[in-house]
């Protein structure tokens, strides 16, 4: 008998070698839509209002509560709300459809509900209390998306940096040519002193700048939410006390800009991932996904512009089984546990690969990559499992984005394991979702860009005028 989630059968045709219990969101959604098609449904419209006046909408069809399968309907809607909230962001959610469904979402997404973390996070991002408005489907506001160009400026002498949870990368670029790149290990998530972040960023910028005849501009990529280069929230800074965060982390990059005396811009690392993909491919739209300490993502639309969306896919659920791995920050099962160093470590241990208990995740990944390079079949199964996750995950993302190119970056993809991840993800799509496989390409950049592509693209963020400079 096939496994079920809320009464919906989920039977993956491609089983994850080291995680046979994996129950993909994309298969649940397909199964639920089949129920709706067979029984007849009613419209459900969702809309999220952002801080810039933007409105993102999503329309689907659900079973009316009286038709049965209520548990499946509530799970489908709640998980879709969660996915949209972290993909697009917003401080107000409109739920247009059956009142019982809207009231359920209103209770779950409240300070007393199961998604309190999400509610508080969005309030911090948008500086506004998060709220859910229950209404009719025809009363949900129309979409009003905001887009803008990003980066692609490579003139002059620039430094680009990328701040991850286990290392920081920096590149020096002269008129689009990379003359220096490096990675430095650090541990920002456990740093209590804000000065740790300041010193780390300044060290990387200065080390890269030594390889330039002058410094014209600096661009940065970092996990978290940034508005006009001001830090709103971010996992990198979770160790910093709230008061110190507001006083010293929030204005960190404005301070560094003033001390360097050059234009400086910092944006979410996912946006730079997508920008790097668009620049390397020369085509759009591009969804960039970085598999590193956590999962980062960004999106460049068909016009080559970014939206005002959050694209925080690290918090988008991809596995609906009971007892799935839980993210330690949000307390929910989401992408950070499937597309990251945390995932490879968890899978390696389940395969019987032993690590010293005190060995940090980046070093565990290095050990795994060494075993993979040596032809260890257990290491290969780790990467194949991540590839299965990715294939089913991309099928879920196809409900959220217009997809043409998916570019995979990040330290997890370094070495021959990256090719295994891509190969297995393509197998999933061709087997389960042939229509998606026919229209979407999945690719890895070359080995150098897998490691430092984000910092190079970050260098292109500021728009400067270098005329007349020596």
Entry summary:
The chain has 470 residues and is an alpha/beta fold. It has 14 helices and 19 strands.
Spell out the blueprint of helices and strands.
Blueprint (H helix, E strand, L loop, with lengths): L3 E2 L2 E2 L15 H15 L2 E8 L5 E8 L7 H19 L3 E5 L2 H10 L7 H11 L4 E5 L11 E2 L8 E7 L3 E8 L2 E9 L8 H16 L7 E6 L2 E3 L2 E4 L8 H8 L2 H9 L3 E5 H13 L4 E6 L3 E6 L5 E2 L33 H10 L10 H13 L3 H21 L7 E5 L6 H17 L1 H6 L1 E3 L3 H13 L11
Parallel strand pairs: 5-6, 8-11, 11-14, 15-18, 18-19
Antiparallel strand pairs: 1-2, 3-4, 3-5, 7-17, 8-9, 9-10, 12-13, 15-16
Helix pairs in contact: 1-11, 2-3, 5-6, 8-14, 9-10, 9-11, 10-11, 11-12
Descriptive report:
- 39% of the residues lie in helices and 20% in strands.
- The strands form 6 sheets. It has a 5-stranded mixed β-sheet with strand order 10-9-8-11-14.
- The longest helix has 21 residues, at 377-397.
- It starts with a strand and ends in an 11-residue tail after the last helix.
- The protein is globular.
- Helix 2 (70-88) packs across helix 3, helix 5 (194-209) runs parallel beside helix 6 (242-249) and helix 10 crosses helix 11.
- The chain has 470 residues and is an alpha/beta fold.
